Amino acid sequence: FAREREIQIGNYVWSPDSKKLLISHRGDLYVLNIGAKPEKPRRLTQTQAGEAGARWLDNARILFSQSGHLFVVNIENFFLVQLSRESNPQNFISVSGGNLSPNNQYIAYTVSDASKQKSIIVPTYIDELVQAPASRRGFTEQK
After folding, report:
1. pLDDT at residue 74, as a whole number
2. How many CB atoms lie within 10 A of CB 114?
3. Residue 141: which of 119, 120, 112 has the closest Cα?
4. pLDDT score for 114
5. Residue 10 gets which letter from DSSP?
6. What DSSP string runs through 95-124?
7. Cβ atoms of residues 29 and 44 within 8 Å
8. Element (H, E) at 4
9. By the 8 A CB rule, do 20 and 31 touch?
10. Which of 68, 63, 49 is nearest to 16 (CA)?
11. Are 62 and 56 in contact (CB under 8 A)?
């Protein structure tokens, strides 16, 4: 079952001109050109941390998230640009969103700082088993 699950496609998104298909597989990104002859997908990323939330900006650029940061890759010349640098998981600072302006020239994203939230531990006593899941509660600062 696990092996079957690993070989499946995680997500796919058509390019704006419907000539390319963006595919995620096992955390990496691939592009498949739709043409007359069958082609193999071209691998864009091969990283230990998976890429997520990939979507087309236009027919040549893809926006995606990796390790809490936002990136844009130009698939024609493979020019990679890191857009955000604020994420710091050790300090509970995360980046989310990534909404584009109508002309695709600007991007707005949210930086959440949950470092001031307090950990709450509520043990659950069942016979001899004790479980103490830690969850963080409080107000998150965002900018």
Report:
1. 93
2. 16
3. 112
4. 84
5. -
6. EEEEEEPTTSS-EEEEEEE-TTPEEEE--E
7. yes
8. helix 2-6
9. yes
10. 63
11. yes
Taking the alpha carbons at both ends of the chain, their separation in whole angstroms is: 42
Answer yes or no: are the C-beta atoms of 30 and 40 closer than 8 Å: no
- In angstroms, the CA 15 to CA 69 distance is 22
Q: In this predicted structure, what is the pLDDT of residue 134? A: 62
Q: Which residues contact 58 (CB under 8 A, 6 or more apart)?
A: 16, 104
Helix then strand count (H, E) for the chain reads 1, 15
- How many Cα neighbours within 13 Å face the side chain of 6? 3
- Residues of the chain with pLDDT below 70 are 1-8, 36, 38, 121-137, 143
Exposed / middle / buried, residue 26 (Cβ in 10 Å: 0-12, 13-18, 19+):
exposed
Closest CA to 86 of 105, 104, 109, 63: 109
In the block, tokens 């000539």 appear at 19
* pLDDT on residue 15: 92
